[in-house]
Amino acid sequence: MEKDYEIYEVFSQKEPTGKYESQFSLLAPSPEIALAMAQENFLRREDPPANLFVVNRRHIHFISPEARVALRRMDNKAYRMPGYYGRVLKKWHELKARRGIGDRLLKVEEDG
Fold this sequence. Notes:
Blueprint: E1 6-13, E2 21-28, H1 31-43, E3 51-56, H2 82-99, H3 101-111
Antiparallel strand pairs: 1-2, 1-3
Organism: Hydrogenibacillus schlegelii (Bacillus schlegelii)
Protein name: 1,2-phenylacetyl-CoA epoxidase subunit B
Pfam families: PaaB
């Protein structure tokens, strides 16, 4: 009985709560054998991982090349830059001055 081999991706964690890091791919007939093969590979390493995972490549979903356009950086993300908030504060003060919000807030605080 001949069994087909499938591609498995091997991931590890350096610490139990750490991020998953892709290590390598391997061919195996089952997830159990893939995990055993991955463990064998890591036995030879100086720094053993806290955890090890194997995932059949068929079960990894990804964005199609046509849809990757959506991943490009958009130009309207100034709010992510530190300098943006200085402008927001300035605009907030201008708005308060124009509408007299600051005076009303001070009056409420004095009355309270």
